[in-house]
Amino acid sequence: MYQALYRKYRPQTFSDVVGQKSVTDTLRAQLETGKLSHAYLFTGTRGTGKTSCAKILAKAVNCENPNHGDPCGLCPSCRAIDEGSCMDVLEIDAASNNGVDSVRVLRDDAIYTPGTVKMRVYIIDEVHMLSTAAFNALLKIIEEPPVHLLFILATTELQKVPATILSRCQRFAFKRLRPDEIASRLNFIAYQEHIEIEPEAINLLARLADGGMRDGVSLLDQCASAANGPVTLESVYASLGLAGEKRTAELMQAIAEQDTAKALTIFSALYSAGKDVSALLGEMCALCRDLLVLRTAPKSGLSMLSGIATEQQALALQSVFSPGELMRVLTETQKTRVSFGKNTDVRVAAELLLMQLCEPSLRLDAQALDARISRVEEQLASGVLVKSAPKASGGDAFDDDRPPFPDDADDPERGSAPPAQTQEQSSAAPQAETPAGFWPALSEKLRAALPATISGFFAVNGPIHPVLQGEVLIMAVDSDFVLNQVKKTPDTEALVREKASAILGKPVSVRFALKNRLSRLGDDPMDALVQFGQQHSDIFTIK
Predict the structure, then answer these.
(1) Cα–Cα distance, 165 to 153 (Å, whole number)
(2) How far apart are alpha carbons 2 and 125 in whole angstroms?
(3) What is the dihedral sign for C-alpha 504, 508, 514, 516?
């Protein structure tokens, strides 16, 4: 039966453990001098050697012929522990045995002396998964254990272990392994297994392992099984569903050039080839991180690269992105990756992301707004004003491109329109003309100049809606509260008039009015007085 490589090449002695010299040297010295603790706590990320060192320590304390702290691996005790047949050395998974009852059984059995070995050893993996009651049940025996008892606890989340447990254990921190340390071990395993593999492929697997030796060996096992011959860089990309450094760099170059068509073409080809979309965005995030490191730490940045792209590619890309642009790409890409759990169609989500990254007008940040305002200012400078097309009846009467007044047919002073009125005559009636992009440009200028208490009212989708009627700019307000806040703020009307006139290139007057009370005033002065009273009901009441 085939045995997975990470199991086959699990370290059997402290000398076999890679990258944890400070831990192994200390444990070996304690074994040689006989100054062992009754409880150890091994912490660190996955695949760094915690469980392997725990098993080696369990063999070493029971070995009949130890060699400088290392177990011999040949005596009956070592063989029994390796085979899992030693009843006095137990490995317990706290994730599935986290209840207080399981710990009570362990505590009751621990008092008995070992039958075939020197010491009874309990290896509790993922100890942070124990419940509070289970920790309390374990605490007493860890505090005052029998002389024949040794506890070895292992966890990836130290912060979840109670302080009462921490204070009674010797703690050893297992660090992440460097890519070169992982690559060296992978080369050794490949040589032993007669696996032909390119150095570039070894280095890529070492980087993808993210500091965990077990992950690196598992990836090597997967790629060697999938390859029909030597393991190459391309076969690793194909086996793991990765885009590869070249394609990722091309995608980032398309984003830098704001070439939406090119970016979508690259993505479509990768998607059709079966590449994992989440992995692709992960590669983009890693590349953005590398580019940010190069921009912010140019002297030492090369030594901190993740290796998702070559040094030449990284150096070429970092010159075409500003740090702010890299932060934006990284942030938006991470948001999209996180949202994959909620999106049923990850392809659409990724394509929308690429469109936003490539096209400034589709973004929602300040940079995108600046781009749109610049475009509007260019149109205004050239004298191009776009007249809005009339909408079908039944819509909002106060949309930017429609007159703010009701039809003449609803005005009792003017009466209804003659039935014989032709389409040409009705189309010739005066319409509100609002330049395209006028409100976004005016909104941005007003929000920058007005006090914070009212600046939010002038957002594009806020409670104020401008309508340009000839030489009059009518600011239709949704509520009395907003109208009162605006009117009591000094110089608001003058500021709006100044900014609007500057954008339009002609003087305009400004009028604030409630949206639901706008009506065409007749010639009768009483109409004007009634209208004023309705709009300023806080001053007096009309009876």
Answers:
(1) 10
(2) 26
(3) negative
| Integer Cα distance of 385 and 363 in angstroms | 24
Count of domains observed in the chain: 4
Residue 22: predicted pLDDT: 92
DSSP conformational letter for 122: E
What pLDDT score does 460 carry? 79
Residues 6+ positions from 430 with CB-CB distance below 8 Å: 470
Low pLDDT (below 70) residues in the chain = 298-312, 343-344, 361-372, 374-375, 377-379, 381-434, 517-543
Q: Report residue 180 as tokens.
A: 């070169």
Residue 102 tokens, joined: 């399981």
pLDDT value, residue 535: 53
Query: What tokens were used for 368?
Result: 């995108």
Q: What global pTM score does this model have?
A: 0.60
pLDDT of residue 144: 84
Do 263 and 355 reside in the same domain of the chain? yes
How are strands ordered across the β-sheet holding 472-477?
Answer: 464-469, 472-477, 509-514
Determine the 3-state secondary structure of 153 from DSSP.
Answer: strand
Amino acid identity, residue 381? A
Q: What is the CATH number of the domain that holds 460?
A: 3.30.300.180
Residue 407 and residue 477: Cα distance in Å, rounded?
A: 20
Residue 224 in contact with residue 231, Cβ under 8 Å? yes
Contacts made by residues 207-212, CB under 8 angstroms, sequence distance 24+: 207/179, 207/306, 207/307, 207/308, 208/240, 209/47, 209/177, 209/179, 209/182, 210/176, 211/45, 211/47, 211/48, 211/175, 211/176, 211/177, 211/178, 211/182, 212/45, 212/46, 212/47, 212/48, 212/176, 212/177
51: domain CATH number?
Answer: 3.40.50.300
- Which residues lie across from 172 on neighbouring strands? 42
Provide the residue range defining the domain that includes 504: 368-386+432-543
> What phi and psi, each to the nearest 5 degrees, are found at residue 179?
-55, -35
Structure tokens at 151: 């506890």
Residues 206 and 330 in one domain: no
Structure token pair of residue 456: 């939010």
Do 252 and 119 belong together in one domain? no
Residue 393 lies in a domain: no
Residue 68 neighbours by CB under 8 Å, 6+ apart: 28, 32
Q: Does residue 313 fall inside a structural domain?
A: yes
Task: Examine the domain organization and report whether 328 and 222 are in the same domain.
Answer: no
Per-residue pLDDT reduced to its tens digit, 33-70:
988 999 999 999 999 999 999 999 999 999 988 888 88
CATH at 225: 1.10.8.60
Do 102 and 219 lie in one domain? The reply is no
- Chain segment 186-214, per-residue pLDDT in tens: 999 999 999 999 988 898 888 888 889 99
